[in-house]
Design goal:
The complex is a heterodimer of chains A (407) and B (342).
Chain A lengths: L1 H15 L17 E4 L3 H13 L4 E4 L3 H10 L7 E5 H10 L6 H7 L8 E4 L2 E17 H6 L8 H14 L4 E4 L6 H13 L16 H14 L11 H9 L3 E7 L18 E4 L14 E8 L5 H14 L2 H6 L5 E2 L11 H8 L9 H13 L1 H4 L5 H19 L4
Parallel strand pairs in A: 1-2, 1-3, 6-7
Antiparallel strand pairs in A: 3-9, 4-5, 5-7, 5-8, 5-9, 5-10
Helix pairs in contact in A: 2-11, 3-4, 8-9, 8-14, 14-16
Chain B lengths: L2 H29 L2 E5 L1 E10 L6 E10 L9 E5 L3 H7 L1 H10 L3 H5 L3 H33 L2 H16 L2 H12 L4 H10 L9 H28 L4 H9 L4 H29 L3 H5 L9 H9 L9 H30 L4
Antiparallel strand pairs in B: 1-4, 2-3
Helix pairs in contact in B: 1-14, 2-14, 5-6, 5-9, 5-11, 5-13, 6-9, 7-9, 9-11, 10-11, 11-14, 13-14
The chains are: A alpha/beta (407), B mainly alpha (342).
Main location (chain B): membrane
Family (chain B): Belongs to the binding-protein-dependent transport system permease family.
GO cellular component, one term (chain B): plasma membrane
Chain lengths: 407, 342
Amino acid sequence: MKTSHLALAAALSLAAGPALAQGECAFTTDMEIKHLSAAFPAWVAVTDAMKECAPNLVVELDQEFRQKQPTAFAAEPSLYHIGGVANGTLTPLLNDGTIRPLDAYVEQYGQDLSPNQLIRIDGRIMAIAMMVNTQHLMYRTDIFEELGLEVPTTYAEVLEAAEAIRAAGVVEYPIGATMASGWDLAQDFVNMYAGFGGEFFDESGMTLIDSEAGVKALETMKALTEYMDPEFLVSNSTYVQQQFQQGKIAMANLWATRASAMDDAAESQVVGKVGMAPAPLAEAGARPATTIWWDGIVIAANVPDEEAEAAFRLAMEGLSPRTVAEHNDDAVWLVPGYEPGPMATGAIETAMMGPVAYPSSVEMGLLHTAIGNNIADFLTGQESAEQSLADAKDAYTAAAREAGVLQ
Amino acid sequence: MRPRTFFAFVGPSLVLMILFIAIPLVSVFLQSFWQTQTVFERVEIENCTPGFPAPNCTTQTVTRPLLDESGRTVTETIYVGLDAYRAVVQPEAVAAAFAAGEDFWSRLSNIDFWKALRFTLTFTLITLPLVVGLGLAIALAVNAALRSLRGPIIFVSLLPFIVTPVIGALSIRWLFIGDGILTNALEAMTGTQIFMFAQGWTIEILMLTYRVWHVAPFAFVVFYAGLQTVNQDTLESAVIDGASRFERLRYVVIPHLMPLIVFVSLIHLMDAYRVFEEVIGFSSQAHRISLQFLTYDFLMPDDSGNRSISRASASSMLTMIGIVILLVPLLMRTWRDYKPRG
């Protein structure tokens, strides 16, 4: 059994030839380790680096990973060893107790990690972060220069700039936004609400979104939609990215992971014309209207200890400074050795301004869904801001009662 | 047929029906009355996340599931009676809408279930006559066409039916979304800006049109087969009696096709009431949702892994009841037709 595995590994490495540069790996294994995560470029870079050190690594990159991850990790044994998570998708794994604490591994093998990468929950390290992601302002530098506009720092200034751009008629729509109904729309509200200083829950777990901050957030969103493509309720991140690349919009508060696509000559007609700026403040003196996210890895609890250890050491190979050196501009890395490029400035400046981290929790998952399903009615003009916030609150209450979070 | 032979033929299908339809149905039925909840505890813990320049550690009170000794979440299942149904249908909100009087409809359509029911019913009842009518029209046209042309025409008319529903809906969406080529063409023709995805009614028209386009070939195939068995002698005698083309259709062809029309209507009602692909394909959920989508929405886990199984079960039971109510008139007709006449 063991020999046949080895023979297979040898055959594979021969077949793959020089691509397997195992010489650079501090750790190699021929165990069959399985990995599941999202599919954006940073994950491709990390898993490629891991593959070099483990010929039998099985990599599954899937943008819809969040649907299968909790169940797959709850299986005995877990269907994957390594999971790629974000701060939102960590919660179900943490709650089900299907991921293991990593303190011992970090002590033994984590010498390359920076303290910023250690995600501590209740004192124990439960995940290793590799990058941060946030929504921040991207804008067309050529248009702003031509019209003599300052880069907006608050949403009031965003609206002024949008008016000037519309008056000049240089693009179809001054603003783009990730407002596709459902998750994206709710995220947009969460950003704006957090920017206005809104609190999401009271002590008993009841939501507080039907507040002044909530109404202000919705009204700012509605004011922005006046300058958008009227089909904003179907516009997700990819759609906004394309609007930018095709020169149809002049600014958007967009995910940092999308920044490098603006300079991708194969897709973009605006190479070198998109500037990166911090997320605008909700209003002067308030917080930036955005949330900070991180992406990283977790190790399954329901796998044999030696496999888990190998998986962790392999993940360290993936998250090594070597990977970052080769793929510096694929993400805003937390890994030591990262040198922020021009496309990362917006995200880093945003992070320095101290926006709230996305407050992932059981309640937040329910509230996010409730918001996404209910505030579109306000943006389409069918009901008042207060009414749609009340609807979202009712939807949250019903879901939270059913889940057992609220009594 | 001897009973033994009969059961030998029907047996496998019965077993599969019980396994894959009856048992899940019973389980969904039960789950709509019971609620399985995770037992939560509220604890104060310290979390550290990446911050700039140093990690960001905060102490907060969080809700987290209670784990037992073996590390599994503790759950409890309680009988809740009709609570899940109440949470879906929201009778109090409906009563309040009634009491409000004039803006009854806008208040009612603010409740997801009623909004979904409204769309589902309109969708089903409008597409039904269109599918039957269009299918019949194509069948008659093909039947009247030259024999040598029939093959190619049948092939082309069947194409929409072959397309996978979600893929078909997505391709239509890409033709119309933003500056899609068909939107551009319409704009060039009418000289006005058109946004098909900016308001509900335009999306609804797209969804209806798409469904009719997609299902009409099925009706066509069934009717075309039926047309081949129309008694030619009856038709000829009708011609001799001086019946016009329309009268022949009305008094000879349609009565002959009636069982097939009932059959196509039955199938279409069942399919259309479960409308789902269009909502996903045209991403219409901000404007229009269907009952099946509502169930799906309850069932999909959110980022924190919560799912509303009880409400999903209740909503799918309600969908099934809806289909049965819609089918009753047609089923009664079929029953009468096949009843042994005394």
